């Protein structure tokens, strides 16, 4: 770690390179890892409030010259702070500190977030790298664009916009979502078909309350949180296996099926074309497909996969949210169900909460209309690709035998394990070493091979590399 010392003095042998800025001295750096040394020093200065929000960092050329190091080292160190959400950069304006650290949750917050999934928990104390899947990069939230859109909305909205509105959502957002989902996901819907909800969890709750079914097929392995949500409302989840082509459609015996066809959670498998055809044929015979399109915005190495709903809007209930693209705390999502189901769903939504808050809906509608939302997604995709690549490269170095799936898209991938040790025990040992991961068995309903589900969105590349090093060390033991 960088030492923050007093003024730089001269040795008899000549001048010592150094900077008045934070009293940085390149001589304090290790023989290797100069970029990490500098990034750690800057991060520590933000943590200890020696750098406050709004302060500008020195130009990269100036700091590099002061320290007698390559400008590329400074550029990379600044980029790490930007990736962590501690700084921002604009052409011509330099690099500016934007906030004190807020990327990593306090242990109590992390514990609460896992409690919502009702998962077994490792001790929270000592966790300093959280690789939980499904956690987006909260530091990437587009604060500037959101604030700009909110100001515009407040200047234009009428008094009527603040009253009790349609429980299905504001017309502006329903219209923008219908167009955006048609363009980007191939969804077929009119604005009135869109019901604005508080995320996919509420979409599942509304469906469970209104569908006249007592059991539903779910992917195995699959989202444990989704299973718990359905079970809470009295619908029994029944496992259907997943293989390399996705859900095994031939095993369906239930009246409805919940699945994640574009990027199966947690394996990352894409439902194959033949399985898509078989599933839609099954639905045409009277079954209902519930499509959870939870992270389709994040793809890196493959072409987009259209939503199932566009091929069979009368047999598919389509759900999505901004939880993985903006932040889960926004509580904004959408449900597009077959029209025969909509009256009951709207009644249940009204009875539940009278409808979502109007202002966030109108702000999101404006972000969609201006293109700011899509620009944000492009930036986030590039950021997440770098993080994914960093974790994969570090795993290749420290766990060369590792087998991973689901790397082409999403915010997580699956690391399969060899040996006889239960993955729950491997996860416990990782937690003891400060790394929080999900064992694959948490998301299984029936026994199967062990694995770890690794989320990479919420950590910068250097922390991901450190996590891989620790995992390699403990698996080597």
TrEMBL record:
<dbReference type="InterPro" id="IPR015424">
    <property type="entry name" value="PyrdxlP-dep_Trfase"/>
</dbReference>
<protein>
    <submittedName>
        <fullName>PLP-dependent aminotransferase family protein</fullName>
    </submittedName>
</protein>
<dbReference type="Pfam" id="PF00155">
    <property type="entry name" value="Aminotran_1_2"/>
</dbReference>
<keyword id="KW-0808">Transferase</keyword>
<comment type="similarity">
    <text>In the C-terminal section; belongs to the class-I pyridoxal-phosphate-dependent aminotransferase family.</text>
</comment>
<dbReference type="InterPro" id="IPR000524">
    <property type="entry name" value="Tscrpt_reg_HTH_GntR"/>
</dbReference>
<keyword id="KW-0804">Transcription</keyword>
<dbReference type="InterPro" id="IPR051446">
    <property type="entry name" value="HTH_trans_reg/aminotransferase"/>
</dbReference>
<dbReference type="InterPro" id="IPR004839">
    <property type="entry name" value="Aminotransferase_I/II_large"/>
</dbReference>
<feature type="domain" description="HTH gntR-type">
    <location>
        <begin position="32"/>
        <end position="100"/>
    </location>
</feature>
<dbReference type="InterPro" id="IPR015421">
    <property type="entry name" value="PyrdxlP-dep_Trfase_major"/>
</dbReference>
<keyword id="KW-0805">Transcription regulation</keyword>
<dbReference type="Pfam" id="PF00392">
    <property type="entry name" value="GntR"/>
</dbReference>
<dbReference type="GO" id="GO:0008483">
    <property type="term" value="F:transaminase activity"/>
</dbReference>
<keyword id="KW-0032">Aminotransferase</keyword>
<keyword id="KW-0663">Pyridoxal phosphate</keyword>
<keyword id="KW-0238">DNA-binding</keyword>
<dbReference type="InterPro" id="IPR036388">
    <property type="entry name" value="WH-like_DNA-bd_sf"/>
</dbReference>
<dbReference type="InterPro" id="IPR036390">
    <property type="entry name" value="WH_DNA-bd_sf"/>
</dbReference>
């Amino acid at each position: 770690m960088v030492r923050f010392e007093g003024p730089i003095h001269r040795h008899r042998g000549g001048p010592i390179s150094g900077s008045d800025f934070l009293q940085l001295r390149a001589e304090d750096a290790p023989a290797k890892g100069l970029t990490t040394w500098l990034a750690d020093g800057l991060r520590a200065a933000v943590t200890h409030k020696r750098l406050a929000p709004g302060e500008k960092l020195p130009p990269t050329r100036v700091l590099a010259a002061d320290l007698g190091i390559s400008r590329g080292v400074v550029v990379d160190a600044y980029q790490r702070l930007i990736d962590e959400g501690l700084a921002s950069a604009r052409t011509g304006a330099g690099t500016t500190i934007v906030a004190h650290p807020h990327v990593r949750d306090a242990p109590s917050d992390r514990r609460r977030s896992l409690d919502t999934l009702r998962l077994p928990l490792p001790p929270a104390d000592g966790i300093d790298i959280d690789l939980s899947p499904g956690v987006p990069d909260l530091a990437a939230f587009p604060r500037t664009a959101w604030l700009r859109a909110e100001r515009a909305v407040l200047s234009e909205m009428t008094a009527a916009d603040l009253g009790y509105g349609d429980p299905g959502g504001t017309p502006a957002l329903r219209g923008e979502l219908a167009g955006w989902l048609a363009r980007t996901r191939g969804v077929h819907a009119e604005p009135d078909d869109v019901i604005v909800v508080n995320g996919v969890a509420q979409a599942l709750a509304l469906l469970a309350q209104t569908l006249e079914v007592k059991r539903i097929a779910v992917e195995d392995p699959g989202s444990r949180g989704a299973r718990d949500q359905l079970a809470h409302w009295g619908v029994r989840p029944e496992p259907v296996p997943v293989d390399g082509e996705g859900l095994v459609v031939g095993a369906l015996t239930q009246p409805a099926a919940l699945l994640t066809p574009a990027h199966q959670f947690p394996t990352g498998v894409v439902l194959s074309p033949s399985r898509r055809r078989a599933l839609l044929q099954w639905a045409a015979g009277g079954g209902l497909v519930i499509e959870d399109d939870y992270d389709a915005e994040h793809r890196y190495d493959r072409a987009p996969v259209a939503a199932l709903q566009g091929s069979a809007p009368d047999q598919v209930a389509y759900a999505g949210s901004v939880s993985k693209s903006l932040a889960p705390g926004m509580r904004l999502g959408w449900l597009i169900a077959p029209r025969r189901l909509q009256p009951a769903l709207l009644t249940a939504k009204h009875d539940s909460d009278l409808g979502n808050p109007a202002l966030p809906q109108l702000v999101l509608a404006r972000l969609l209309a201006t293109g700011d939302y899509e620009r944000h997604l492009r930036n986030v995709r590039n950021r997440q690709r770098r993080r994914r690549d960093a974790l994969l490269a570090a795993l290749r170095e420290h766990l060369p035998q590792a087998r991973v799936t689901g790397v082409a898209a999403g915010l997580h991938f699956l690391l399969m394990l060899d040996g006889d040790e239960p993955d729950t025990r491997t996860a416990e040992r990782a937690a003891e070493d400060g790394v929080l991961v999900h064992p694959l068995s948490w998301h299984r309903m029936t026994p199967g091979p062990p694995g770890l589900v690794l989320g990479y969105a919420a950590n910068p590349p250097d922390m991901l590399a450190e996590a891989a090093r620790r995992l390699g060390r403990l698996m080597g033991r």
